[in-house]
Amino acid sequence: MAVPTSPNGTDSPYVDGIEPDIDSVDEMLTDQEAEDAILASFLYSPPVRQLVPGIDNGTPLSVVQRRVTAWLSMVTGRHLASGYSDPSSTDGDNLFLPPAVAAPAEEIADERLYRVMGIIQIGLVELGFLSNKALLSDIHKDWVLRSTYHILAARAVLNHYRRVFPGLDADISAVASMEKAGSLRVNITPVPKDGLPDAFLPLYAGITGHHSWGEAGFSASKARDAVEAINAETNLPALRLLISGQAVNLREHFLSLRLGPPPLPWYLGIVRPEWFLAKMGYDGDADEDWKKGQLPLRQLIQARAKLGLNKKGIKNQEGPSLRSRLKSRFRRKLESPAGAGSVSNQPAYGVARDDAQAKAIKEARPKFAEGIDHSIFTNESVVEPDDEGHVHDEWDFRMRNYRLAATRVLTPEAQGGSIDGYNKIVQTHKAEITRIQRQFEALRIEERWRGGEREGPELDLPRVVRAISDIQAGHQPDDTLFRRFIRDPQDVTVMTLVDLSGSTQGRILSEEQRAVVLFAEGLNRLAVPHSFFGFNGSAPTSCTLHRLKGFAEPYDDGVYKRLGNLRAMGGTRLGAHIREAHRMLSTRPESRRILILLSDGKPEARGDYRGEYGIEDSAMAVKEGAKHGVKTHCISLDFSGEAPEYLSKIFGPGNFLVLERAESLAHRLP
Amino acid sequence: MVYYRPTGDEIEVFETAAKNKLPVLLKGPTGCGKSRFVRYIAEKMGRKLITVSCQEDLSGSDLTGRFLLEGGSTVWRDGPLTTAIREGAICYLDEVVEARADVLTVIHPLTDDRRALHIDRLGEELEAPDDFMIVISYNPGYQSVTKELKESTRQRFVSLSFDYPEADAEAEIIMEESGCDADVAKQLVRLGKASRNLRAHGLKEGASTRILVYAAKLNVAGLPLDLACRSTLVGSLTDDEEMSKALDELVRTVLG
């Protein structure tokens, strides 16, 4: 994997504006290790445009993301997952759009801008402008060629979709005239609009409203010819050849005029040839020169190395190695609420996003992450997961946006204990269990009248008439003469999460323990697919759902041993646990999915995951689940008196129950 | 004759199956022309068509027949399946997965070499005439754990898969059915195709040919095309507000 010039929307192409000290690369790491480390560092960076209310932000992508993504899928026929990057970009599988556009916030206009940014990126892939290895290798090494090719190809994409979809013509024209869409930059460095060389001006005709090619002089003729030729051509294979050729010609022309790369309007995004090249997988005997980075940068590195200078032209001094500094930075990020930071490789929502995030992290940090002692991040014991966990976002109400890939939830099997723990509770709570089982049986999961039943509270009159007719005709009548309310147990699934954070230690844990056993007995009687998980974990990347009973597991000794021996530790990063539960429930075939939380109190964990932050994140997680058909209810064992207020915020009025004792479950169930 | 535009070799396969007295299973998304095809082929072959829309209250005896009280006596009334056998008709069970399991038990003997129906109340064994044929249909997209056509049932049928027609064919169907002009049909086809890109990625189903025909009919009757599309496509495809907005925007993008 090459070192990407990662888009991050700041003036600096580097994470946090800090350039990795490339001098140390030669000293401390192999090239591959350095690339992996720097790439990991990029991937764990925070979102590029922090959304602070009232500060220079237009409509956040999250507001329009679902419909924009759906629209792009319909129009292009490509189902690209979406994530954040500023400027917009794509790797062919994922579409990266800025988390917000610049102010002012005008939802309709901003949505249009997102759509056009999306269609340019998808179009570059869909129309085959980023599929030629040799071309990608060339534009990877040469910024003048890259920018020229990009601006010409984007024009062709816009022309194409204008022709195919009449309604897009007005959209593209409107976006081209938007001030914020047309701000110019080279790579990610802003460039003033005034004073552009004449030679560049024709490139912007029809793409931005701020430049007129009519004013351009003689030196603009080559660019004008190129643009005219592209505008006139509609055949795609011919267009691809034409644009490649024109881009090379123009590059030579610009260089002969001692010009650099033509700046790109912001909404055209950025092209990342290295992402495509990496996926194409150059074989051994092919040219892999592109992997070594851009030529000027390499020359600079070599020159500095020869002189023994660092990036500021100062002689290298002793200090922590790049590896240790990256480790330290990585650790800080893991401990911060942003957690694993921003993995930009993200679909918009749902299971696909989680999988993509997990995959991105796995692929991005193999050597880097493996070299880290996880125990330094947390005082909790290192969990040996039976899977690699799933990554989830976390809602930051202050930023009004998600912290991307901020948490990771593992789902190992819980430790068991003696089976006596479970049996003892069953023996001592027989009466309550009977009541709860009765309550569960009475739960109206899905009831409707169905005729033609052998038993039921009412006669199915048409069938009775038919039976009488059969009898009179001397035949054995059908015995399906009744109708009754039926429940479809296969259409509902229940997942129960038990709070095993350290604060439950003592009385609350024992109450939870009893409640779990009573629940298990009730659900077992109800015979619906269900599962039990305990949850805890303070650090964002060590949230854990301990499997007490999986959906597919029958009630056997192993399950009873786990259910009857709950252990508490850690904090309550509730949002992450709810999201993982929703993810698991979303894979269930049943149409009704119910999540029940047994908890002692507020969502609180390490860092600033407390107070409003934890409540807002948890509430958002509950809302996300509701969108996917998961109903979340909470049974709280918080005796503080303030529970109803925050539980109502998180779960909504009527979706929680505050119990004084586990035994009162039977009386208090709805 | 009912209009049907072939999209492949379905007519040849069906007629060959009919000649060999084999039952046929039609599968495909909603509104792609399965039922229309059965109506067409029945008419083409000159056979009576008896259609049964299956639902979960439909039992085996509903298909075979029942005794009814008339005055002081009982009278046997054939069900649709028995009628089809007696008359040598095509019995079409639409959305068969919605029916109860005993319906499939009833039709099983009619789908193999026995081709017979035993009516226990009459004590009668009805042998199916050569012209009798059983056709079932279902939409694989609507299958679930609880509503699934068993393998043992599926393998009794000659299977014909339907999907939405190619663009030109679909435009031709829309024009023929609604009387709209070619430009309108072309725009509707593009809309339909685009909406199908979102099938299983936000929409359960894309726009069916049938709903496109409805939009065209509304337009021919005087509604502006964008309003006709919003009234049919957008409203019927989803209740999700965000998806509705995306579809709304798609209508504007395609129609201009």
CATH superfamily of the largest domain in chain B: P-loop containing nucleotide triphosphate hydrolases
Radius of gyration of chain A: 31 Å
Q: Which two protein chains have the largest interface (Cβ within 8 Å of the partner's Cβ), and how many residues from each?
A: A-B, 37 and 36 residues
**How confident is the prediction overall: mean pLDDT of chain B?**
89
User: What overall geometry of chain B do the principal axes of the alpha carbons give?
Assistant: elongated
Alpha carbon gap, first and last residue of chain B: 37 Å
Features:
heterodimer; A: 670 residues; Rossmann fold; 4 domains; eight-stranded mixed beta sheet; 13% strand; elongated; disordered N terminus; B: 256 residues; five-stranded parallel beta sheet; two-stranded antiparallel ribbon
Account of the protein in words:
- The complex is a heterodimer of chains A (670) and B (256).
- Chain A contains 23 helices and 17 strands.
- In chain A, 48% of the residues are buried.
- Chain A is 43% helix and 13% strand.
- In chain A, strand 16, helix 22 and strand 17 form a beta-alpha-beta unit.
- Chain A is elongated, with a radius of gyration of 31 Å.
- With 670 residues, chain A is α/β, with parallel strands linked by helices.
- In chain A, helix 4 (107-126) crosses helix 6 and helix 6 (143-164) packs parallel to helix 8.
- Chain A has 4 domains: 52-271, no CATH class; 324-409, no CATH class; 420-443 and 489-668, von Willebrand factor, type A domain (Rossmann fold, 3-Layer(aba) Sandwich), CATH 3.40.50; 450-484, no CATH class.
- Chain B has 256 residues and is an alpha/beta fold.
- Chain B folds into 2 domains: 10-161, P-loop containing nucleotide triphosphate hydrolases (Rossmann fold, 3-Layer(aba) Sandwich); 167-255.
- In chain B, 44% of the residues lie in helices and 17% in strands.
- Chain B is built from 11 helices and 9 strands.
- Chain B has a 5-stranded parallel beta sheet with strand order 2-5-8-1-9. A two-stranded antiparallel sheet of chain B has the order 3-4. In chain B, strands 6-7 form a two-stranded antiparallel ribbon.
- Chain B starts with 9 loop residues before the first helix and ends with a helix.
- The relative contact order of chain B is 0.13.
- The interface between A and B is large, with 37 and 36 residues.
